[in-house]
Design brief:
330 residues, binds flavin mononucleotide, tRNA binding, two-stranded antiparallel ribbon, 8-stranded parallel β-barrel, alpha/beta, 13 helices, globular
């Protein structure tokens, strides 16, 4: 069974991917309830943390019920990264994850995120310094390489392992690909098949069905799947994959009652966490996905996403249940 440091994981664990503006505490808690074995925060700027930027610091909040949880940080400056490790430790996460995969220009041009894939020596030395600076397990999330001509992930993963990285999650795309094309899991399998590798190698990218997760396990032999987009507005994905692994059959999609319940609890947790105004505002983006595919839903969606008043949003949920309670999801 895979382990991250002292954390024992089940066979082929499912990890909720770090996702900006998505993987917040309420969403992580819902995914955990539905079977995610490890959850990660969205990426947090080390520069923001050391300047005590309120927005970055708030991202450090974690619930006990979501453990094991990894806090993901990014940056390119060694001193800032080490100081942010000390700040992150105060939130007592189970894992510190380093983002070496973000392809966004404003991150990459500072040499952070996937930008570091242009300087593997720096990637390794930064990881080493962070490992030496904390007792918490340090993990890495990265991509195959900078571009098609620089896929050295087998060597990179081995070097990261050798400096103490405790697990690696690899998105099967290069930085140049951004999110285009299909994720290629073959180079990830090569990392796993390297006889020197002993830390868990998690696959990421395009695990969009239980069948895909099964291929990642059985055909590619990876240690677990990190799941991003398939879970957005659909925390049930984790349960569906596990059910498929166990029985070979598909679980029925969540009913309207379950969807309304998730939306309601998401909003309740968000309000609890950041107050009514922000809670109402920041949960809006999730509703479209919770209620995807329902015909003639616009009027209700608008009520959910335009009201500043939580009571109105909760009332809209009740209306949805009344009006569409019997809707059969395909
Ligand atoms: C909205 C969104 C936000 C993301 N934010 C982050 C992030 O903060 N840190 C990170 O390492 N990756 C981030 N990613 C990348 C995902 O973690 C993941 O690698 C990618 O979506 C591929 O996996 P998937 O096909 O399962 O979605 C983000 C992806 C999306 C769609």
């Amino acid at each position: 069974m895979p382990r991250i440091g002292d954390i024992n994981l089940p066979d082929f664990p499912l990890l909720l991917a770090p996702m900006e503006d998505v993987s917040d505490p309420p969403f992580r808690a819902l995914c955990k309830e539905q079977g995610a074995d490890v959850v990660y925060t969205e990426f947090i700027s080390s520069e923001g943390l050391i300047r005590d930027a309120a927005k970055s610091v708030m991202k450090l909040d974690i619930y006990e019920k979501e453990r094991p949880v990894g806090i993901q940080i990014f940056g390119a400056n060694l001193d800032s990264m080490l100081r942010s490790v000390e700040i992150v430790e105060q939130s007592n996460p189970d894992i510190i994850d380093i983002n070496f995969g973000c392809p966004v220009k404003k991150v990459v041009c500072k040499g952070a995120g996937a930008g570091i894939l242009k300087d593997i020596d720096k990637m390794v030395s930064l990881t080493k310094a962070m490992v030496e600076h904390t007792k918490l397990p340090v993990t890495v999330k990265t991509r195959l390489g900078w571009d098609h001509n620089s896929i050295h992930i087998v060597e990179v993963a081995e070097r990261l392992q050798d400096v103490g990285c405790q697990a690696i999650a690899i998105h099967g795309r290069t930085r140049a690909q951004m999110y285009k094309g299909e994720a290629d899991w073959k180079p990830i399998a090569e990392v796993k098949n390297n006889p020197r590798m002993h830390i868990p190698v998690f696959g990421n990218g395009d695990v969009s069905s239980p069948e895909a997760a099964m291929r990642m396990r059985d055909e590619y032999g990876l240690d677990g799947a990190m799941i991003g987009r398939a879970s957005i507005g659909y925390p049930w994905f984790f349960k569906e994959v596990k059910h498929y692994f166990k029985t070979g059959t598909h679980l029925a999609p969540p009913t309207m009652e379950e969807r309304v319940d998730a939306a309601r609890r998401h909003l309740e947790m968000a309000i609890d966490w950041k107050g009514e105004k922000l809670g109402v505002f920041e949960t809006r983006r999730h509703y479209t996905n919770y209620f995807k595919g329902i015909p003639n839903f616009k009027e209700y969606r608008l009520k959910m996403v335009t009201s500043d008043d939580a009571a109105n949003v909760f009332a809209a949920f009740e209306e949805v249940l009344e009006k569409f309670g019997d809707y059969q999801f395909a």
